[in-house]
Amino acid sequence: MIEINHFEEVMQIKLSQTMNGQPLYWAAAYLVDGLLIDTGPRHTAEELVEFLEGKNVRFAVNTHHHEDHIGANYLLQKKFGIKIFAHPEAIPLINQVPKLLQYQEMVWGYPEPTHVYPLPEIIETDHFRFQIIETPSHSVGHVASGIRERLVFYW
Q1: What is the topology classification, in CATH, of domain 2-150?
Q2: pTM of this prediction?
């Protein structure tokens, strides 16, 4: 199940496995100016990839290695050929099958191991420059980003 919210230029893509037509637990990915932030759980990967068709996704960032944030990495790389970036400490964890508890497997599913690239300190899109901020309290290699500056172009 997917639900969409818009916050100015940012599209929030809420994702959830359903049971009896009801969402079990929401996860979210965000699309801004061709940058996808997180890829959601494995159980919604096909639906996310289908939704992103034609939306000009150029690259992605995983904020950390948890299964509800990296589940569509493999399919996104396969379908769109995009590069995905993550903190260097998260890379080996994203590139292996995680050990999940039964509820995690049921709610989010097992992500396929994927090769991701080390995250630079700054991520630039056509219109934004994002500063990457390490926030290691939730997990090893956890990051957040803030808009460092808006790039304005005049034609």
Answers
A1: Metallo-beta-lactamase; Chain A (3.60.15)
A2: 0.90
